[in-house]
Structures are given as C-alpha cells and as structure tokens.
Amino acid sequence: MDRSTTTHPLAAHRPARRAAAPSRGPLRERAAEVLWANWTGTSTVPSRALYPHQWSWDSAFIAIGLRHLSPLRAQLELETLLSAQWGDGRVPHIVFNDAVPLDAYFPSPDFWRSATAGRAAGAPADVQTSGIVQPPVHALAAWLVHRADPGLSRARSFLARLRPRLTAWHRYLLDDRDAGGAGLAAVLHPWEQGMDNSPCWDGPLSRVEPADPGAFRRADLDHGAPEDRPTDTDYGRYVRLAVDYRDRGYADVRGSDVTGPPDAAGPGASRGAFRVEDPAFNALLIASEYALALIDAELDGPAARPSAHRARARTLTEALVARLWDPERELFLCRDLCSGELIGERGVTGLIPLVLPALPPGVAAALVRTARGPHFGLGGPARLVPSHDLTGAAFDPRRYWRGPAWFNTNWLLEKGLRLHGEQDLADGLRADMLDVAGASCFAEYVDPYTGEGCGARGFGWTAALTLDLLREGRDGLFEGAEGEGWGA
Question: How many other CB atoms are found less than 10 A from the CB of residue 225?
Fold first, then answer.
C-alpha cells in the first residue's frame, strides 16, 4: 500500500468521530462505537490511551469483527499491517504511528530502531516497527474477511495480494523460528506469545537479568493500576530480552544452533535465554495453515493440485501433540527449549489447540474435561475461562495474564468447543461473553469469577469479537467455505 496516500478508500464511509465511552444502546451499536472511536484512518488501535499504535494480533482479531461492519475497512486493517512486513517475512508486533508522541508508549520506536538494527533482516525503511512478532492469526482473519464479501474481495484482489505476504510470514516462522528443530515455531520473548505476563514464563524468565530500572520509563502505569500490571522486575526482564535481540540485529536462533542452556557469562549473556515452544502460538499457526489452504483453493480453482498447506497443518498438529501434550495433566504445556523440559504451569494457552480439527479425539475430549474441571471452571464457578489455573499458587484474578479472562482466548475456545461437538458448552460461553462484554464496557480483560472489568475500557478486540459472536454465534471458523470445512 502507498503510505503517501492522503485519501483512503473509506474516507467517504467513515462517520464522525465519536466518544470512546460506549453508550447504553444495544450491544451491537455500542461495540461499533468502540471500533469507530479507535479507528485511525488506516487501522484500529487496541486502546486510544494505553495502546495508541497498531498491534499485530489485535488487528487480526479486530478485522474478524470489522467484517460485519465494513468488509472494506476489515481488508484495509490487514493490508496496513502487512505493508510493514519485513523482508525476511516477519510481521512485527507493533506498527508505529508517527503522529503519536514518543513518550506515549514504551518501548517506543527509538527503542526498537527497526530501520537500522533490523536492516539485515529487511526491516522497512518507510515505517517504524518493533522487531518481535505476535501469534499468526492473520491468514485466518484474511479468509474470514474474504468470506464476508467475496465479490468485493475478488474485485480488489484482496486475497491475491495478501497470499504471498502470508506465505512468507509462515515460512519465516517455520524455518527461522524452528529453534527446537522439531518443526514447531518458538517464541523468543513473552510479548511474542501475546500472553505477556503468564506464570508459564516465570521459569524461563528467571534466567534473565532485569534491565536497570533507570534505563526506561513504564508508560503503561500512566493508564493502569500497578496491581493489574506486570511487576517492575518482570518488566525489566522483558526490556533486557528485547535489547539483546535488537543488539544482535534481530537475528534468530535456529534449531541447529540450539545446544543447551545459554552461557550465563560474558556480554550478551541472555542471548537466547528465552526460547519456548508455545501451544497457542503453534495452534494459531496451524489454523492459519488451514486458512491458507482455503485461500489457495479460492485463488487457484478446483483443478489445482491439493494445497501443501493442508498437509502441513496436519503434520504440525502431530508435532504439537508429540512435543507439548501432557496426558497426565490433560493439557498442552509449553516447552522450555533451554532446559528441554515441559513447563508445569497450566495456562489457557494449553486449551487453545481445541480449535484444531485433526486433534486425536481422545485429546480433544480430555481438553474439554480440563476446561470444565477445577483448573479453568468452564460452565461452573468461572463466568469466563481464566488465563491461568484457578487453583495455582500464581493465580491472580486481576493481574495481567496471571488469571483474568480475555475475550480473544474465550472466543477461540468457543469456536473450538463447537468444532468438537460441544454445542451446549459453547452456547453458554457465548452468552456469558456477551453479558460480560456489555457490562464491563468492553474491558481489556475481566475477573473470571465476577466479570468485573480490568485494564482499558473500549478495547478493540473485545468490541470486535462481540460483533462476531452477535452475528455468527453458532458458526464454526471455516463453515460455508465452498463445501470445504476445517478437516476436509
């Protein structure tokens, strides 16, 4: 996309700017107000105050909801994000808005130095980004956006233009991020997995020496209560990992380079100190491989040979089960590639593979049992599925990703439950999500027991996924795709 363009395709369709606080009107109208208020002209911010730039997986989830308001705008959301893709294929987790002051968010563009530090990896010269990534929901979002208005999509060559970028994005993850050498993508920073402050990261992070607190200022505390946010120590570790990755030119650690725990001595000691195979990150990569198979079928027609993406999705599902499934806990766990061991903490990340169609039936049934059991409380004491084990020592119902419930993970679980025939459970979760979204003014995250809102209000993906649940509450992710379903 030409970033010098001053008039975009939605200029004639955008309503007047509305206040960020939603009204007391019908839920759909209130959710739409949030998205219009967070719209910048080419993309949607998660939150005007707390997150004033474009975030990668946020935009994917937002596009899924935007397709019900404006398929054109949903397409533009993804096009804007992918126009900032790096030459090596990575999609950065933040695309910065130059109009936002540097001190409005940390880490800011001058911290990441993408155009200089990322030059060898092909960082774009005309836009500032971060150098890390987020979960690959984008091909799935692109397919769902196409489905919302296939005629418009075909007229704009939406899928044809995005397919090479999405393919390069997946190739980067499958090749450059195969740090364990077993086929799964690894994350090199907690921010990449998306569930930033999860107790699942406590063990790997304990190896990382925190950055000097005087070397950075936490802008997030200007907009959120300290008791709801990561601790200063954890934040210092996040900064240290990001600095080390930046200072080595955003070079990745491949499977052939992994020889054991990182050396704790000498300069750059935390290089590779965080290398984790995460079940949710890889499940979303697999889901997007299925989406790319459907995109191939749409673009290449029925006479084309079968897409390699569908076969790869099945192979990756097998690797996910072999590497990360714990039959005793009946949950997928994260694997610490420095120690080689599974991490025993029970996080919602371990339930997300329920969205995959080729899971062994016994594994899918066990995941449903775990979701309904004491650790996650689905259909029982928890209104929404928490981000962490309700019975765990680290559980906190309000602190960022250490227990609160999030709408994107619950949306994924709702879809996974439907996929595996748990319609009643899915209906109950959908109803609770809609109730909590409205009552919390579309909060960033909520107390899983009470539904009380935490973090930002008028949050982008909460409003967007509310729209999706209102419109397609009983749909699966791939139903109606010209006769092809998830597992076809």
Answer: 11
The strand pair at 186-187 and 276-277 is best described as: antiparallel
Q: What is the DSSP string of 344-378?
A: ---BGGGTGGGG-TTS-HHHHHHHHHHHHSTTT-T
Residues 476-482: what's their mean pLDDT? 48
Interhelix angle 71-82/56-66, nearest 10 degrees = 160
Residues 391 and 406 sit within 8 Å (Cβ to Cβ): no
Check residue 20 and give its pLDDT.
38
Separation CA 456–CA 454 (nearest Å):
7
Which residues are CB-contacts of 342 (< 8 A; sequence separation ≥ 6)?
324, 326, 333, 334, 335, 336
Active site residues per annotation? 196, 444
Give dist(CA 73, CA 56) in Å, integer. Answer: 16
67: its two tokens = 């397709």
Longest Cα–Cα distance of the chain, Å, equals: 62
Angle at the Cα of 140 from the Cα atoms of 136 and 142, rounded to 5 degrees: 105
Specify the pTM: 0.90
Among 412, 145, 155, 91, smallest CA distance to 295 is for: 145
* 186: pLDDT strictly greater than 50: yes
Q: Per residue in 83-93, pLDDT tens?
A: 999 999 999 99
Mean pLDDT of the chain: 88
Mean pLDDT within 200-204: 95
Half-sphere exposure in the Cβ direction for 343 (13 Å, CA): 25
pLDDT at 324 over 50: yes
